[in-house]
Write a structure and sequence with these properties.
419 residues, five-stranded mixed β-sheet, alpha+beta, single chain, six-stranded antiparallel β-sheet, 22% helix
């Protein structure tokens, strides 16, 4: 018999193209670092054809037993560092930060004690403390010319159930979602609910701060809410202006914590003034506190040629640059303040400064006006860089917490120092 014809091999199925790996973050992007905080894992995803979002995810370990206020402080300071690192990016940004009270490899022993989620197109971050309802300050309304973009369909969505956090960096998935959305973590069995972030008016002293808190309670803080007239402390300017590469948030973290042990509004403003003069020296600085009865911002501390003469100067809350500052999510930068309405007002003339380069930061909490911090003409003449703008943001947040928890006394006996 004739040999059988050899069977033709079946055509091979066309190979499916391998999915493109997401782009790696830019080399040298700094990792957030704060005293007492240890990095457990991180994840990064760059914008791609399927997701136009720059995604960053971090897990950190802290010592156990921190108060809700301390956890919020760590979460916000970490977020400020991430926001600084991503400031030059024009894409939408999604950041998630989880804080644990223990270190681990593989699966965590317990859920995170705090989670921060920030989508820049939605304004302020949302912070969830374990056992508390999620809370965030209302996002300021953006002006019509710069409306925040709506979330796109490809935006990563948080899962409904907790997922383990990898202890080592792994390749990011197509839709990043390692941490559950704020509020997804149940409170531990038997644990008393903790207050939402921003609800407690006064800070809670940790174990290492008990001695300082007791000393203050035995002194001016416990004796009377009205501060005494005292000599104006000299402004410290020894350190000089920082370079754009320096991490100002990490440097300010411990120093701003001490603000909450100041006994009154004027002392706290003086403390903030000295910090600003040391890390961001300028020709002029004004710290205002809001008087709700008159709807005016009152200068309580200043640095400049005539720093005492400008004290108690009042500015209406209808001033356009102040209103715009409270509408924005960030401190406003003015590259030519000499031509901007509002900087020719009497407060700068009284201080003896002609503003050219200026910053204006809002001190607010939950949409409530508490004050304004202004700086003009930085040392060296170069424009304010993003690190300095973020530092002022962070100082404004901490000063807002402080002002909200103290009696506001703005009369002459409280503000004007003795000769």
């Amino acid at each position: 018999p004739a040999p059988a014809a050899p069977a033709e091999p079946a055509p091979a199925a066309p190979a499916e193209p391998a999915p493109a790996a997401p782009a790696e973050p830019a080399d040298g992007e700094p990792v957030p670092s704060l005293p007492g905080m240890t990095l457990i894992s991180r994840r990064a995803e760059e914008p791609s054809a399927t997701s136009p979002i720059a995604y960053r995810e971090f897990a950190f370990a802290l010592e156990p037993g921190l108060s809700p206020k301390e956890l919020e402080r760590y979460a916000r300071a970490t977020w400020e560092q991430v926001r600084t690192a991503l400031a030059a990016r024009t894409s939408q940004k999604f950041v998630q930060i989880a804080l644990f009270d223990h270190t681990f490899q593989g699966r965590p022993q317990r859920p995170p004690v705090a989670v921060l989620a920030w989508k820049d197109w939605r304004g302020d971050p949302v912070i969830q403390i374990r056992g508390a309802a999620p809370a965030a300050q209302p996002a300021p309304q953006a002006p019509a010319a710069q409306e925040a973009p709506a979330p796109v369909a490809a935006a990563p969505a948080a899962p409904a159930a907790p997922a383990p956090v990898a202890a080592q960096p792994v390749a990011p998935p197509a839709a990043p979602a390692a941490f559950p959305a704020p509020g997804a973590f149940p409170a531990p069995a038997g644990a008393a609910p903790q207050p939402a972030v921003g609800s407690a008016p006064a800070p809670v002293a940790g174990p290492t701060e008990a001695r300082s808190a007791e000393a203050i309670a035995a002194g001016a803080l416990g004796s009377s809410p009205r501060p005494s007239r005292r000599p104006l402390a000299p402004v410290q300017t020894a350190s000089g202006r920082r370079s754009p590469s320096e991490d100002l948030i990490s440097e300010l973290f411990e120093e701003m914590h001490q603000l909450h042990f100041m006994p009154d509004i004027v002392t706290g403003a003086e403390y903030v003034l000295n910090i600003l003069a040391r890390v961001l020296p300028t020709e002029g600085t004004l710290i205002h506190v809001f008087d709700i009865n008159s709807r005016q911002f009152v200068v309580v501390r200043a640095n400049g040629p005539r720093s005492t003469a400008v004290l108690l100067h009042r500015t209406s809350d209808t001033l356009p640059i102040f209103r715009e500052t409270f509408r924005r999510a960030r401190t406003l930068t003015f590259l030519d303040a000499s031509t901007t309405d509002g900087f020719q007002e009497g407060r700068w003339e009284q201080l003896g400064v002609v503003p050219k380069l200026a910053l204006c930061g809002a001190v607010q909490q939950g949409g409530r006006y508490l004050g304004v911090i202004e700086l003009a003409n930085p040392e060296g003449g170069d424009a304010f860089h993003d690190g300095e703008v973020n530092a002022v943001d962070y100082i404004c947040e901490q000063f807002a917490d402080f002002v909200a928890s103290r009696p506001i006394v703005l009369d002459e006996d409280a503000v004007i120092p003795r000769a």
